[in-house]
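Question (not urgent): is this output format expected?
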Amino acid sequence: MTRERLKALLKEYGQVAIYTYFALFFVVLAGFGAAMAWGAGVESSKGGLAVIGAAWLATKATQPIRIAATLGLTPLVAAALHKLGLRKLPNAAAAPTGVVVAASAEPPSAEVAPRGDEPASADKPPKAD
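Got this back:
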């Protein structure tokens, strides 16, 4: 179920969904890294690499939560970007509510109503003045 929702989200929001996911990933990674570094008191490069590795593992463990957060946050991020004028809304939400957009397969009619000083067409009776 989540995989289909994620595919639909990517199709609808595109790059915004990807950027939202990676923003969450890096925020969680940095948060775990900072929490572990402060708690462990790392002073060597080996200790630093161990903290980065542990933070990555902890971030990987939160992947289902981050995917769910991406599903919920992406429409909000897209709407905020739209309000700031940085992005258009997806096609489904682009037209304001109540506006009907219709496309005609036929070209507009070439028939123009005659003015008072022009003769009427042969198939229409002349106007009575």
